[in-house]
Amino acid sequence: MTHVLDPDALSDDARLTAPPLPPFSDITRSDASLRAFLHGLPGVDQVGAEARVAVLGTRSIKTTAKAWAIDTAISMVDLTTLEGSDTPGKVRSLAAKAKRPDPGDPTCPPVAAVCVYGDLAGVAREALAGTGLHVAAVATAFPSGRASREVKIADVKDAVANGADEIDMVIDRGAFLTGRYLDVYDEIVAVKEACGSAHLKVILETGELVTLDNVRRASWLAMLAGGDFIKTSTGKISPAATLPVCLVMLEAVRDFRAATGRQVGVKPAGGIRTTKDAMKHLVLVNETAGPDWLSPDWFRLGASSLLNDLLLQRQKLRTGHYSGPDYVTVD
Amino acid sequence: MSSDRLAVRKTYKLYVNGAFPRSESGRTYEVTDPRGHFLANAAWASRKDARDAVVAARGAFGKWSGMTAYNRGQVLYRVAEVMEGRHAQFCDEVATGEGLSGSKARAAVDAAIDRWVWYAGWTDKLAAVLGGANPVAGPYFDFSMPEPTGVVAVLAPQESSLLGLVSVLAPVLATGNTGVVVTSKDRPLPAVTLGEVLATSDVPGGVVNLLTGDAAELGTWLAEHADVDAIDLTGAPAGRAMEFEREAAGTVKRVVRPPATEPDWTADPGLSRMTPFLETKTVWHPMGV
Amino acid sequence: MTSLFEYAPAPESRSIVDIRPSYGLFIDGVFVDGTGEPFKTVNPATEEVLTEVSSGSAADVDRAVAAARRAFTRTWGPMRPADRGKYLFRIARLLQERAREFAVLESLDNGKPIRESRDVDIPLAAAHFFYHAGWADKLDFAGLGPGPRPLGVAGQVIPWNFPMLMLAWKIAPALATGNTVVLKPAETTPLTALLFAEICQQADLPPGVVNIVTGAGETGRAVVEHGDVDKVAFTGSTEVGKSIARAVAGTRKSLTLELGGKAANIVFDDAAIDQAVEGIVQGIFFNQGHVCCAGSRLLVQENVHDEVIASLQRRISTLRVGDPLDKNTDLGAINSHLQLARIRELVDIGDAEGAQRWQPDCVLPEKGFWFKPTVFTQVSPAHRIARDEVFGPVLSVMTFRTPDEAVAKANNTTYGLSAGIWTEKGSRILKIANQLRAGVVWANTFNKFDPTSPFGGYKQSGYGREGGRHGLTGYLKGADRS
């Protein structure tokens, strides 16, 4: 068994960028054609999807598998702070934790990225200089997305200019729910363009889309528009990341790659607090999209408190006894 | 008007697939009253007639079982209406065939007609009485409903030639099944007239097939027939029921065993003659958004 | 096949079960030695002999029936219905308390994955007792006619595929309706029934109410043919079911049969494909396909055939085959050498008849009885694998073009136990469900069971229902069977 972290996992040169997709170029020609395509996707039976994740949730991850999974999960964390009260000091302390999550254990891998508001991206970039860790910034009038497109684009450009190399945008759920799919699509395309070389994560805010059918449609919409990642939630709406939602999104990226050859990442965010939650997500990735997605390049966990639980479990595995909150850092 | 007019006698034939054929075997047998006086020659159904009857019943099953319960109820009620019009004829046949007094024969015919009315009213209530929703422990809507089992072979009672016959046939039809009936061997004439009633009362051809003849001979063919779903052995000749039941086991038929002696057909039958010919189908569906 | 994320072994501890070196018969509340030749029961995953079990002779069966008759006349019959209910509630609770023990023992003796015995078999068995416990003092309200009365002594013969669950399906309704029981478990899986006998003792169930007589076919025949048995209930093969129906012909014994099946699982082109694929997998690989209602004939609409088969193969490749006690195992061992031989024979015939066999690249353990999950495509309705019940992890795939064709092919079988429909169109579900000649129709789901939900077949899949109000009728005098 080779439970070794992929050494290239944190580099970004392996990522594919969004090329035009010839077989799908007709789909976005008009609102009608886009609508016909999205509504032609197979439906999702909610009960069946929930039953599937319930079974996967009983997977028992022990010993070596658990050790590998914990380190993998840590390396996939987008360590996040998205509060009105955020300050440069808070972001610096988060960045320090991101680099060395467990100060007492140099074998502990760093996380994937720090995720902040755009105005603090510069602070994060500076704090993470030379580490290879990514700086993710939420943009596009996060979390509601209720602003004009000009403002959203400006928001994105500002965050990129501040040093973000990953942009977490929100889709216009109002437009999506009223069926103006082409508006949503065009906006993602515009944001993607504004991102330049920064990677784009498209937040679907699945808690507001409600049905799994909508989740599948929104996933395809975001991927067609060039999103590098699809992300469940802002964390500001409940429910945030749920396993059935994640299942449907993983099926979407799997099917999208089969149809287009382009691989898109998935990021559940919000509500993932325990190691057990993280294990369930990794099992879901492993058995739905497959091992190709088991790297920080293709799967992220948007979280804040999760990291400490992963660290506590990691310490337990290493020492053989239970740890306590005083043995991990408060951010 | 001359009272010495020579009567036109009726030829008593089988009733199969909505038509009145003679037996393919060309056989007939003599029907007499209980005192041995000649009444008629009846068609003596053969195994091939039984085979044809099963084919007819199977062919009619889809249409009959697919009708709305309301429609089927009306058709059965229509049978009662048309019987009422032939009341005198039935009384005459029952009285002579069973050797009953006029009033007793009339009571039997009245009860037979009323039995059709009773079963006619059942068609659209069975699902409510025998089906329902099942509160399963999960996000599923789950319901069970009765459905007809298919083609039912009936060995009709040997004694009660009309009331007994209707009492075993009507429940088969009310539940949406189609039937192949071997009538009372010695008292087949009311059954033939009933065939004429059925043929003129909106019962689709093939739904009921009436074979006059010997249950002892035909019972085996029907019990073994792979396209028969259930068999009612009520009129099985003494000593043969166990053998027929064994034969029926070969294709897992639903079997109604004969009572020790012929029952009192005027008694309230309850559901007892319908449920043996009903299957319960349970359907599950998830409840999600 | 190595993966980035290899799940380490996660075996359930078997130390929780205490298997004795030998077991007797449970008659009249105590364990007694049988007078037949004892037999061994093995763990099909390892071929390890688990223990030796008594075999009930005709004389032993006679004693068991006599004990059941006594209990029926003296204790269980006259008992207040509410008290009968309380005993059943007790049993349900004891099963829940000792659930893990039952689950481990079931997986050891049967070969099924612990995930299934733990999450399906045992919880459902307990649920059956809990459900029927409530009926005991409410039979007057069951709509089965006035003053329903028990039949007397029920002789019950159950199969090896769901040993404990089938025991519950048989014993719970029999006791709730006031009958007493002589039950014969399957020869290859007697252990949970014997552990259940201990539960009866712990519950202080009066002696003779439940009697467990282990043995092979001869023992079963003695139970079925015993002259003082009033009711025979059998779950198993259609062949044996027919012989039982012959055996009870001409008697006053009431009979219910739950026999084989060859269910069609119909996938329309508008189905929720991912869930349909899950349902197909659940339909045929649940319990290694040792399921009478298994969805063993997949009928796929021709225009989505390739897509569905590709998804299905990808999904099957993720199935984890191996140690039944590993909590991550999806597919366990084939129950017996005999059954494995039967599966192999039919699969060989499938090959010979020209169907295309596909199996995932998985490694099977060296010892024990194993068979890879198998999918046959290009199957014709005339092929044996499309008609005969394989009772193993073998799926036969056929296609259809129109709903009428789907229904015609689905119904083209002598069986009629279950069927599946996958479509997002509600009216189509109801229409097709109506047209299918099967006792259980799963629409957009498969292999779901519940004590409140009547289960049983049309045609040669048997008669009578188990579960729900309908399941009570088979155990009550004069109750209208439905």
Give the count of helical stretches of chain C: 15
β-sheet strand percentage of chain A:
5-15%
Number of strands of chain C: 20
Query: Can you tell me the residue ranges of chain A where pLDDT is under 50 for at least 5 consecutive residues?
Result: 1-20
CATH architecture of the largest domain in chain C: 3-Layer(aba) Sandwich
Instruction: Give the radius of gyration of chain C.
Output: 22 Å
CATH superfamily of chain A: Aldolase class I
Name the average pLDDT of chain C: 97
Rough outline of chain A: globular
Largest sheet of chain A: 8 strands, parallel
Shape of chain C: globular
Question: Which SSEs are present, and which pair or pack?
Answer:
The complex is a heterotrimer of chains A (about 325), B (about 290) and C (about 475).
Chain A: H1 31-40, H2 46-56, H3 63-76, E1 77-80, H4 88-99, E2 113-117, H5 121-127, E3 134-138, H6 149-161, E4 166-170, H7 173-177, H8 181-195, E5 199-203, H9 206-209, H10 212-224, E6 229-231, H11 243-260, E7 265-267, H12 275-288, E8 301-303, H13 306-319
Parallel strand pairs in A: 1-2, 1-8, 2-3, 3-4, 4-5, 5-6, 6-7
Helix pairs in contact in A: 2-11, 3-12, 3-13, 6-8, 10-11, 11-12
Chain B: E1 28-32, E2 38-43, H1 47-66, H2 69-85, H3 87-98, H4 102-120, H5 126-130, E3 132-133, E4 140-148, E5 151-155, H6 163-174, E6 178-182, H7 189-199, E7 208-211, H8 215-224, E8 230-232, H9 241-249, E9 254-256, E10 278-286
Parallel strand pairs in B: 5-6, 5-8, 6-7, 8-9
Antiparallel strand pairs in B: 1-2, 3-4, 4-10
Helix pairs in contact in B: 1-8, 2-4, 3-4, 4-6, 8-9
Chain C: E1 22-23, E2 25-27, E3 30-32, E4 39-43, E5 48-53, H1 58-76, H2 81-97, H3 99-110, H4 114-135, E6 149-150, E7 153-157, H5 163-176, E8 180-184, H6 191-202, E9 210-212, H7 217-225, E10 231-235, H8 238-248, E11 254-258, E12 264-267, H9 273-285, E13 297-301, H10 305-316, H11 337-352, E14 356-358, E15 374-377, H12 384-387, E16 394-400, H13 403-411, E17 418-422, H14 426-435, E18 440-443, E19 462-463, H15 468-472, E20 476-477
Parallel strand pairs in C: 1-5, 7-8, 7-10, 8-9, 10-11, 12-13, 12-17, 13-16, 15-16, 17-18
Antiparallel strand pairs in C: 2-3, 4-5, 6-20, 11-19, 14-15
Helix pairs in contact in C: 1-7, 2-4, 3-4, 4-5, 9-10
